[in-house]
Amino acid sequence: MSPRKAKPKGKGKRDITHDDERELSTSNESIEEHDDGIFVVRKISGSTSNKPYRCPGCDQVIPMATPHTVAWLEHDQSGRRHWHNICWSKRNLRKPKVERTRSAPRY
Ligand SMILES: [Zn+2]
């Protein structure tokens, strides 16, 4: 059980609360490099999934108690998303044809 408190006040100042760290320091976490950034990927086992989430990959609900994947950009933990395992792996395979924002702006 991880009590999810309201966001600590103050954006832009990076202070990582110990609560967050504890919540995230699990062994089933890994780092994946994608075109759009470095993702932290965490495998959720069904037993710890106690509410339904909507998968951004297929726009379907992940039912409760379903093993799935949580991923977020390493610097944007608040933007984490819950994915079906299959959707996440498909995402990895797919080379998205969206225009990529490269670091250099094009003029
Ligand atoms: Zn899905």
Automatic annotation (TrEMBL):
Region of interest (Disordered), ranges: 1-32
Protein name: ATP/GTP-binding protein
Compositionally biased residues, Basic residues: 1-12
Domain of life: Bacteria
Basic and acidic residues: bias regions: 13-24
